[in-house]
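MOLECULE: protein
FOLLOWS: sequence and fold
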Amino acid sequence: MPQATTRDGLKLSYEITGQGEPLLMLGGYGMPGAFWSVFVETMAQQFQVVTYDNIGTGTSDIAPHHRTIEEFASDSSALLDELGWENCHLLAGSMGTMVSQQLALEEPERVRSMILLGAYCGKPSFQEILKNDPQRGNHLKKLQETLLLMPKNPQQSAKQLGELCYDPNSFSNYAEFIGLVTQIFTQLPTQQPPLLFSDNEPTISTWQSYDRLSKIKAPTLIFHGAQDGILPVRGAFEMALAMPHAELLIVNPAKHAVITEMNFERTLGYAAQWLKQVVGN
């Protein structure tokens, strides 16, 4: 895989597929670029697609400390420099939606549009979730635990990730899907995902964009799962109302991983058509 250099000198692995308008895919919490493979097959028919491994995942370097959202946004900007892209469209999931918003706020001229899957803007805050929604708070803690333990037990981590983020009924063969996730995890080197919670290290849980969302002018399409047990649906509504050019679609049934096998053609097809219209305007 080719590698870009981040602003603090780390190596960031990426892949380019297809031709056309530039589309950067930003992965979720602890997820390497390989998780976008099925999406790439579809989107590369119309766009030049770039996926990458966040610092601390896949074959990218591990940083001296756990990364923050601001640092991840800087990494994505450095990747755009490496690619020679003045601007691009963004397709992001989970934590990647936070990175996308940060990039759009810091360098608005580089973001032409955003498609956000399972998005978060800091409202309600992680602290509010832990206090007022103990079950969801436990899911968030378990998610961090799952990603931190992944290198030691990829099979168990894949199973736990599936339970937290995926609806088994959204797959024709759920066991086969978990097997594929296990295979991806098994092939990964030692990981250092960012921290959601820590008493003495930087975390991503204190980040928020809610009071700045009105500044994001890029057309934005938000997908959120009706049964998302990680990030509340309320937050997606808060985002859509606060952004001047946002459209929200609630996918039912769907958990945190919004687009799955059973709704793939319908949801990603809608996203591709929406993006095509944005390009045409």
User: Anything to note?
Assistant: The chain has a mean pLDDT of 94. The two ends are 34 Å apart (CA to CA).
